[in-house]
From TrEMBL:
The keyword Mitochondrion does not apply. GO terms for cellular component: endoplasmic reticulum; lipid droplet. PROSITE patterns: ADH_SHORT. It comes from the Eukaryota. Signal peptide: none annotated. One of its GO terms (molecular function) is acylglycerone-phosphate reductase (NADP+) activity. Belongs to the short-chain dehydrogenases/reductases (SDR) family. This is 1-acyl dihydroxyacetone phosphate reductase. Keywords: NADP, Oxidoreductase.
Length: 281
């Protein structure tokens, strides 16, 4: 059970090496009762020994799995509701649009957007009860249109506008909605990505190396990535400090924010397409 003077946080996507895992550790150290979730709980086994931490299996695309999580959290929060929900689960899918498999693209969108929708809808009454906060992990990818990431970029753009709309809808009930526009963070999301092998008939076959490098984070883009631990500390500070609406965190996020407003489209096109192999097609 959560002590009556302890706040609670549920975080999705807490596998070791990612943002969710770092957030779980950060909030636990700050005295929160943490409900850390992942599809496979063996991938966050180091969290099980921590005090005030519950590790749950949660598939954000499964209504049954979400309902089980709701029942568990309800039973362990003494009827006080949930103070913070952090929607962090996410997947990446890197391919030219013409070479994407629609089923795989839909699966990714289901996790990155519809999973957030479903989890938020399931926990919203508990958040209203606690006058809590919803934190959605959006991305600069929702503003920057990096080639070969069209559906991923679209999922993050959708998540950002979803969060801003939800912020207005939940304002009368005292619930904050924070959209974290995440910049470059050193995590396992790229290291765990599948290698995007293209068919030899692909119109982009000559750019396959650049596409693989992008997917695996080996494109030497020169961007300094913030550590997951530093990122988690900044975001936790924002949330606990009463932030609401969009916040920009992570490596390159401040520059991306500025460029998005001030950079002429043609110049930004050149920056985003540089080194992607498009000029050799």
């Amino acid at each position: 059970m959560v002590p009556t003077d302890t706040k609670s946080v549920l975080i999705t996507g807490c596998s070791t090496g990612g943002i969710g895992h770092a957030l779980a550790l950060t909030f636990q150290r700050k005295g929160f009762t943490v409900f850390a979730t992942a599809r496979d709980i063996t991938k966050m086994s180091d969290l099980t020994s921590l005090s005030n931490t519950h590790c749950l299996a949660l598939d954000v695309t499964s209504k049954f799995s979400i309902q089980q999580a709701v029942e568990f959290v309800t039973a362990h929060t003494n009827g006080r509701g949930l103070d913070i929900l952090i929607n962090n689960s996410g997947q990446q899918y890197v391919r030219p649009m013409m070479d994407m498999v629609e089923e795989e693209a839909r699966k990714m969108f289901d996790v990155n957007f519809w999973g957030v929708f479903a989890v938020t809808q399931a926990f919203v009454d508990m958040l209203i009860l606690a006058k809590g906060a919803i934190v959605n992990m959006a991305s600069i990818s929702g503003y920057w249109y990096t080639p070969y990431m069209a559906v991923y970029n679209a999922s993050k753009a959708a998540l950002a506008i979803f969060g801003e709309t939800l912020r207005l809808e939940l304002q009368p009930f005292g619930v904050r909605v924070i959209s974290v526009i995440t910049g470059a963070v050193d995590t396992n999301i790229m290291k765990n990505s599948s290698v995007p092998k293209l068919p030899t008939t692909s119109r982009y076959y000559t750019a396959e190396k650049q596409i693989i490098d992008l997917a695996l984070g080996n494109d030497n883009d020169g961007v300094k990535r913030m550590s997951a631990e530093e990122f988690a500390g900044k975001v936790a500070g924002d949330v606990i400090g009463g932030a609401n609406g969009k916040i920009w965190r992570g490596g390159y996020s401040s520059i991306a924010r500025l460029f998005n407003v001030l950079m002429p489209t043609g110049v930004l096109d050149g920056i985003l397409s540089k080194g992607r192999g498009l000029d050799a097609l």
